[in-house]
Amino acid sequence: MSTVTESKLEHAAAVQTTEVAPRRRFLCHCLKVTPEEVQQCITESSAESVHEVTRGCGAGKGCTACHCRIKDLLAGLCDDCGQSKRRCLCAAAVSLG
Fold first, then answer.
1. Is residue 77 within 8 Å of 71, Cβ to Cβ?
2. Residues lower than pLDDT 70 in the chain
3. Are the beta carbons of 73 and 38 closer than 8 angstroms?
4. Shortest CA distance to 36 belongs to which of 45, 27, 46, 48?
5. Residues near 39 by Cβ (< 8 Å), separated by ≥ 6?
6. In this structure, are residues 81 and 64 in contact, taking their beta carbons and an 8 Å threshold?
7. Rounded to two decimals, what is the model's pTM?
8. DSSP 22-60
């Protein structure tokens, strides 16, 4: 392989890895509300229903597709895996990665 081709491949690989931005995940896509924002709303306002979360942070006002995920957070379940927060290993996996 020539050095020109190698340098182009190295450059392409470097550009590819540096230009990939982390995706921000939303619990409520309509209003761009993250799971962390919903959890903060639940914690700070002691919300016990989807309606109370909607009033607090806006999540769930649009198409309502996120209502089941809001209910999961209200029940204390992980938004990523659906497990109880006590049994969830998602946070541990993120910190190791």
1. no
2. 1-24, 91-97
3. yes
4. 27
5. 73
6. no
7. 0.64
8. PPPP-SBTTTTB-HHHHHHHHHHHT--SHHHHHHHH-TT
Write the pLDDT tens digit of every residue in 48-65: 999 999 999 999 999 999
Q: How many residues does the chain have?
A: 97
Q: Is 66 exposed, middle or buried (0-12, 13-18, 19+ CB in 10 A)?
A: buried
Closest CA to 33 of 13, 8, 10, 53: 53
Give rounded-to-5 percent helix, strand, coil for the chain.
55, 5, 45
As a whole number of angstroms, the distance between CA 92 and CA 78 comes to 12
Q: Are 53 and 38 in contact (CB under 8 A)?
A: yes
- The encoded tokens of residue 80 equal 């990523």
